[in-house]
Amino acid sequence: MEKLYSLVIHPPEAILILVKSMKEQLATEVGWFNSKNSVGHITICEFKATDAAIEKIKIQINRLCETLSPVEILLNEFGAFPNGAFFIAPDKDSKTNLKHIMKRFNQSLRIPNMLKSDNPHLSIARRLTPENLIKANHLFTTIDLNFVCDSVVLRQFDENIKQFFVTDTFEFKDNPQPRLIQGTLF
């Protein structure tokens, strides 16, 4: 039987606690909203896999992490998408670095029907009405967070509580890929 998984970047606990408190503040202002109870994260991809397939996917993820280097991430503004998503956005350099990481996974993982993300952001809320989006923009005006992105997290969806939970963390090992060097024979 297939289960739903997501591969994400989790900021450190202090940022996760702040995001949770922001979600609570927003809920006090606008009521319940989509992703209110979701732990803060930056999505790389979502996919379904069997127990046997997920073990092979974990090996692929681990191999990719061997070659990735930790990068400093600055989250310094709020943004919104037309679908009502309200989020914390990375600065230009951080967005470039995150996109590079996301692209590496999304191009390398060979998973059928994988939903790929290519726009890094840390969601506060999803599917807000236009009125509630205005309230969110008035409630939250400035932000300045930073962290070192040095791992990715694999999460599995729990059908009972309708939330993802962490199953594995894969740390970046900063080992350059071995390169084949073409030699000259004399």
TrEMBL record:
Pfam families: 2_5_RNA_ligase2
InterPro entries registered for this protein in UniProt: Cyclic_Pdiesterase
Record protein name field: 2'-5' RNA ligase
GO MF term (any one): ligase activity
Keyword entries, A-Z: Ligase
Organism of derivation: Flavobacterium laiguense
